[in-house]
Structure formats: structure tokens, C-alpha cells
From TrEMBL:
Any one Gene Ontology BP term: tRNA N1-guanine methylation
Transmembrane segments: none
Binding site for S-adenosyl-L-methionine: G129
Protein name: tRNA (guanine-N(1)-)-methyltransferase
Organism: candidate division WWE3 bacterium
Length: 230
């Protein structure tokens, strides 16, 4: 059986220092050391051409705040050999890469999306916005998909990118260690999580449900199914 290629994550951001601590720790860090995953944060200001390294500008038509400009993202993706520098279109040979933008009005990111991205692609590139958002042409021309992690606004796209990274990485064989953990966890079958307990059996006067101590696996599975929380 052929060895699976390392799943590579790239982040185009003006704060690469936000990315590194999370992906170097715990499960993701171990997976990187085993070469199951690799992480590469790129400072978007590298692809600017003025002395202030400007990545934003005022929106046409007025409005509060500043928008991320499209050209630095295009040049970064061209440097990564994923987009044509003149047209912005996908370059030949980039079919196994997926460029994802994070935006509050994007499609809600789901467990199914995480599984699909982990199994279908070998490279995930996140375009991390800041300020009041991105020029719409970034979303229309450079991104393959635009996702949101919830109906709220954050100060930047780095946290959504890391949330999606974590969810995607869990679907890469070997990352969790025990594949049964992925098969049994919440949302793997489209349903939510059930309550779980560990020692001690009684804590602050609250007892673990007797059925979980019974050893009757069929009854325990039925209880778990009945108590899933959506």
C-alpha cells in the first residue's frame, strides 16, 4: 500500500506568529513530527511593494474601516505555484490543493467538510483576512471555498483557520493514534455528543448514571444514543 502524502497547510496572514504556537503543540505538533502534517505560515506583507508594506486600503463607495487588497494574496499564491499571476486562475498541477478564505458570511464549516478536505486534498491554503474584511475579488477569483465557523465576527481569520485545521487534521490516518476515536466521536454520524463521565463515581453529590457502570454494552449504547445532545 502506497504511503500517504503529508497533508500540508499554508496560511497567508499578516500575523504568522499567531499560527506557530498552536500547530506546534499537542496533537498537531506530534503529527508534524511524524510527517503526517506540515504547517507553513507566510507573512502576506512579503508580497507588497511600498515601503510601508501596505496590505489594506479604503473601500470604494465609502464605509468604515479598511479592506484587504487582492494583489498581495495573488502574488503569494503565485509564489506557492497555485495561481496564475496574470489571471488568478488555478495553475496546472494544483488540483490537489484547496484555497480557503475565512469570512463571517461564508458557508458554515461542518464535520463533513473537514472529512472531505482531509481525504481529497494534499494541500490546504488559508487566506486569513483582517480589518473590515477582504476585497470581494479575493473571494470570487482566488478562493476555492469560503467558510465561516459561526454567526459572529472575529478580529481576524487566523482563529477560524486554526479551528478548521484542527478539525481537518483529525481525519488524517495516524493523527489521532486510535482510529476508533474518530469513528465514535460526536458528529461522525451526523449526530451530537452524549454526556461522558470519569472517576470518581460521585462528585459534589452528583452520581454517574448507573447504566454506565453496569457493563451491559448493548444497554450502554442505547443510553448513549438516547442522550445525544444536538
Amino acid at each position: 500500500m502506497a504511503k500517504r502524502k503529508t497533508l500540508r497547510f499554508d496560511y497567508l496572514t499578516i500575523f504568522p506568529e499567531v499560527i506557530h504556537p498552536y500547530v506546534q503543540a499537542s496533537m498537531l505538533g506530534r503529527a508534524a513530527r511524524k510527517r503526517l502534517l506540515s504547517f507553513h505560515a507566510h507573512n502576506l506583507r512579503r508580497w507588497t511593494h511600498d515601503r510601508h508594506k501596505t496590505v489594506d486600503d479604503k473601500p470604494f463607495g465609502g464605509g468604515p474601516g479598511m479592506l484587504m487588497k487582492p494583489q498581495p494574496f495573488l502574488e503569494a499564491l503565485a509564489w506557492l505555484k497555485l495561481r496564475n499571476i496574470k489571471t488568478g486562475r488555478r495553475r496546472t498541477g494544483a488540483a490537489r490543493a484547496r484555497v480557503i478564505a475565512t469570512a463571517a458570511n461564508g458557508k458554515p464549516f461542518t464535520h463533513a467538510d473537514a472529512a472531505r478536505l482531509a481525504t481529497r486534498y494534499t494541500r490546504i491554503v488559508f487566506l486569513c483576512g483582517r480589518y473590515e474584511g477582504m476585497d470581494q475579488r479575493i473571494l470570487d477569483r482566488l478562493a476555492d471555498e469560503v467558510f465561516s465557523i459561526g454567526p459572529y465576527v472575529l478580529t481576524g481569520g487566523e482563529l477560524p483557520a486554526l479551528v478548521m485545521t484542527d478539525a481537518i487534521a483529525r481525519h488524517v490516518p495516524g493523527v489521532l493514534g486510535k482510529e476508533a476515536s474518530l469513528a465514535e466521536e460526536s458528529w461522525s454520524d451526523g449526530e451530537g455528543e452524549y454526556p461522558q463521565y470519569t472517576r470518581p463515581e460521585t462528585w459534589l453529590g452528583i452520581k454517574v448514571p448507573k447504566i454506565l457502570l453496569s457493563g451491559h454494552h448493548k444497554d450502554i449504547e442505547a443510553w448513549k444514543k438516547a442522550h445525544r445532545m444536538h
